[in-house]
Amino acid sequence: MNLLSLLSGKKKKLALTHAGADVDSLASAAALHYSFPNVSIGIPDHMNLNAKKLAESLAVPYSINPDFSAYDALILLDFNSLPQAGSLGPAIRAFSGPVALIDHHMKGIDKPASPGLSFTDSKAVSTTELVYRLVRSSKKKLSPKAAQLIAAGIVTDSAGFLIADHNTFRIMGEVMQAGKFSCAHLLALLRTEPDDYEKIAKLKAAKRLQLWKAGPFLVACTQVGCFESSSASALVKLGADVVFAGDAQKGKTLVSARASDAFLSVTGFNLARDVMENLSDSFNGAGGGHAGAAGFNGRAKRIEPQLQKCVELTTAFIQKKAPGAEIKKFE
Hints:
Blueprint: H1 3-8, E1 13-16, H2 23-33, E2 39-43, H3 49-57, E3 63-64, E4 73-77, H4 89-94, E5 99-103, E6 118-120, H5 127-137, H6 144-157, H7 166-179, H8 183-190, H9 196-207, E7 210-214, E8 217-223, H10 228-238, E9 242-249, E10 252-259, H11 261-267, H12 271-279, E11 285-289, E12 293-299, H13 304-321, E13 327-330
Parallel strand pairs: 1-2, 1-4, 2-3, 4-5, 5-6, 8-9
Antiparallel strand pairs: 7-8, 7-13, 9-10, 10-12, 11-12
Helix pairs in contact: 2-3, 2-5, 2-6, 5-6, 6-7, 9-10, 12-13
């Protein structure tokens, strides 16, 4: 059995996002739902606000923490490490049926997919781009909803086309033509205004900031109880080159990291490769992501050691690139 035959077959399939599903993860699962038979959508634990807005805008059906016993096969989307599935990680490991994987991240330590059922490409801008390739290979007609979903994943995971290439724009042109929608319509599907909780989280993240100067670069970390990724992005916009925002609750830890495009282009730094995937050497958990946006899910009572390790790995990279670079913490 190959991936296309599994997708096109009669088996009941669950398209499963990572925990805290973002737009690309949700949109990938939903695009499969609207393109292949007997595909349901499952979300481990929760989804982020942008993904929730997209699901509401397009009336996408989904279940939070579904029971796997109702399905013959699993399709993991936009993640390749079981800890990234949150509370459903053990259930994936115990699942007796075929497990497929569609993902655009760098390969993780886990190999959760069944033999012959992986479709990965770390050079792809988004996982929805890979879903689009599968739909085209199946010769199926792309529905208007699936087209909008694929485009949404590309827009968000390319950071508004900042990391796009010619293939990205080719696919965008094709899906916009298939779905007959404008860019303004697409952006309206994704637009959300931060609520007071998110605003407060960002302000608290700035208040709790720890800052280092490493050569010509600014490296920061902070503790925040929610909205870790948007807090890290906000601090990069304020001027930091690299930010790690994290929290520990009920024995579980989460670190979200962001880096500026200028820092990445000058140094060749990669948050997933150089930091997040190395944290598991020192802490219980798994990490991954992209050069400029990555994360780590672990288990510990305190977040401080993980944040400090992130800073150490980053400053060590900078010193390797620029021997003699001074590391100074601002008090």
